[in-house]
Specification:
- By secondary structure, the chain is α/β, with parallel strands linked by helices.
- It has a single domain, classed as TIM Barrel, CATH 3.20.20.
- It contains seven helices and ten strands.
- Strands 1-2-3-4-5-6-7-8 form an eight-stranded parallel beta barrel, surrounded by four helices. A two-stranded antiparallel ribbon has the order 9-10.
- The termini are close together.
- Bound molecules: the ligand O=C(O)c1ccccc1NCC(=O)[C@H](O)[C@H](O)COP(=O)(O)O.
- The site of the ligand O=C(O)c1ccccc1NCC(=O)[C@H](O)[C@H](O)COP(=O)(O)O has 25 residues, from strand 2 and strand 8.
- Belongs to the TrpF family.
- Pathway: Amino-acid biosynthesis; L-tryptophan biosynthesis; L-tryptophan from chorismate: step 3/5.
- Keywords: Amino-acid biosynthesis, Aromatic amino acid biosynthesis, Isomerase, Tryptophan biosynthesis.
- Its EC number is 5.3.1.24.
Length: 202
């Protein structure tokens, strides 16, 4: 069954709803974003979440020591590197790594084979925004990435298109953020429920 990552969590209520509806991973953004959480905020939310749920810290070209500190202070147990972090940098950490690639065309996936990460997350390229764009990319390109390992499909997913994305790309997981929001960082309960139901129905 396709796993589900709900990203951009900023509130305990949203985290608990996502778990109740069946999310497998929750994402906490430490990069510059309207969905950014403080260390204290993330730690407070994570303390309320069952152990079985993956808690993913999302980073963007952060210094090694910053990431180490967040791991220590919050209890995140997955690392998502969303920038131009090198394979060597990703291997410095003991936690499982999700390396993100922002897909514009085939060339965006060059270098993917150099990483030895747990999973690859494919997100949409946007010239000004690193993530949470609400835009999809050409899902046909996901097949190339799948040759290298497990993939997570991200970027512009919502209750209308998630089944098609799963059907076309057969991912390990799907990732959603703005497609289930009322406003950045504030999730819409009903949209979240419907998204998860649709994703689980595939
Ligand atoms: O979501 C953000 O604001 C963000 C900002 C900077 C780096 C990464 C960010 N998000 C990472 C994610 O994993 C999002 O879930 C992913 O970009 C998909 O977002 P959306 O298109 O809104 O579903």
């Amino acid at each position: 069954m396709t796993r589900i990552k709900v990203c951009g969590i900023t509130r305990i209520a949203d985290a608990l709803q996502a778990v109740k509806y069946g999310a497998d991973f929750l994402g906490f953004i430490f990069a510059d974003s309207p969905r950014r959480v403080s260390v204290e905020q993330a730690a407070r939310i994570i303390a309320e979440i069952p152990d079985s749920i993956g808690k993913v810290g999302v980073f963007l070209n952060h210094p090694y020591d910053f990431v180490k500190e967040i791991i220590k202070e919050t209890g995140i147990n997955y690392l998502q590197f969303h920038g131009s972090e090198s394979p060597e940098y990703c291997q410095e950490f003991r936690l499982p790594v999700i390396k993100a690639f922002r897909v514009r065309d085939e060339k965006s996936l060059v270098g993917l084979g150099c990483y030895q990460t747990a999973v690859y997350l494919l997100d949409s390229f946007h010239p000004d925004r690193a993530g949470g764009t609400g835009k999809t990319f050409d899902w046909q390109l996901a097949a190339k990435a799948a040759e290298y390992g497990k993939i997570i499909i991200a970027g512009g997913l919502n209750e209308e298109n998630v089944q098609k994305a799963i059907h076309l790309t057969r991912p390990f997981a799907v990732d959603v953020s703005s497609g289930i929001e009322k406003s950045p960082g504030i999730k819409d309960k009903l949209k979240m429920k419907r998204f998860i139901e649709k994703a689980k129905d595939r």
